[in-house]
Amino acid sequence: MSFASLWESLLPIGRDAGTGGYRRYSWTPADAECRRWFFETAAERNLRADADRNGNLWAWWDVPWADSEAAVVTGSHLDSVPDGGAYDGPLGVVTAFAAIDLLRERGLAPVRPLAVAAFCEEEGARFGVACLGSRLLADAIDPARARALTDAGGTTFAAAMTAAGHDPAALGPDPGLLAGVGAYVELHIEQGCALAGMDAAIGVAERIWPHGRWRLTFTGRADHAGTTRLGDRRDPMLAAAATVLAARGAAARHGALATVGKLTVDPGAVNAISSSVTTWLDARAPDEARLRALVDDVLTQARTAAVAHGVTLDHAQESVTQAVDFDAALRDRMVAALAAAGIRAPVLPTGAGHDAGVLAAWVPTGMLFVRNPTGVSHSPAEHAEPGDCLTGVTALAAVLTDLACS
Length: 406
Ligand SMILES: [Zn+2]
What we know:
- By secondary structure, this protein is of the alpha/beta class.
- Helices cover 36% and strands 23% of the residues.
- It contains 13 helices and 15 strands.
- The protein has helices at residues 3-10, 29-44, 90-105, 132-137, 143-148, 157-163, 175-179, 194-198, 236-254, 288-308, 328-340, 355-359, 386-404, and strands spanning 48-51, 57-61, 71-77, 114-119, 181-189, 202-208, 211-219, 223-224, 257-266, 272-273, 276-284, 312-321, 324-325, 347-350, 365-370.
- Strands 1, 2, 3, 4, 5, 6, 13, 14 and 15 form a nine-stranded mixed beta sheet that branches.
- The protein is globular, with a radius of gyration of 23 Å.
- The chain binds zinc ion (ZN).
């Protein structure tokens, strides 16, 4: 099987020697190397590769005698979060090429076009909007807004794209390309450890939980840490801290997830009571009603904490993504194809967003998960066992055989 050599060839690209994590950000030299790897891998397999107008990569197994124009597409993304793991994204792309090799080894050929895709800026690590390439393709973000997104250094997405040799004027929806896609199946490392608990190497996605981001700003009064009596303080940090803990408790009560992973403090001095603290709440729940109840619960407790500490609270919803139910017919077909190949694949939900979730508004999409023994993701410690990766290739090949070769 070609998986191991393909995996090894991609592994060194964009890896930071100090942390062992990956820094594969869009339109950087590491990204250019990933793109070169994609084109070389496609060329070795006589697949016709190109970049679409949004910087997404496609490698086509053309079928001139196709019984249908509707292509079967598989893939994922090659970019990473800061110091991300090796598997999140690349596992789906490498497995896609390896599955095509396995089809050919078995003497199988598609009766409709089959393609491997790698979507641009999936993590949003450089320009702040996750799944940017698929959102542009699927008309889920205004191209003018995408062009103007900036990275931490002030470089716009348009400027970065231009410097990498792509024309940002062409950014935008591509209904023609999407109309030619009959199904999209993304294989991804599991970002959790449900499969480990079920003793299964492969899972099939049921739905993506609805999720969103809220910004909460507590404003009090800056003052001297050494001379202001405790009773005289209006310290926004105390209300923010209470809210962080409240979010955790609320998540547990609602059977959901809530995280405060970012806060900014003004003025941010060691010896001063802060004037304001802004926190960002990331909330995810099995359904919209529970997400709303969770966020209302956190906001109520944040208001109570603000009053208790004599500070004000402003809050804003920055984004909400509705639940995505993957196509039920495709999901059932995938489960059946896997069962026929002798692979038991439980169906499970996920709290993480993916390109497959964005594309689900336009095309039937489905996802396969590969077991992650510790559940750790977005970290250099992210891992899948080699045997499970090979089962992933077999599983994807079984699904592609069913969808594209019969
Ligand atoms: Zn991913």
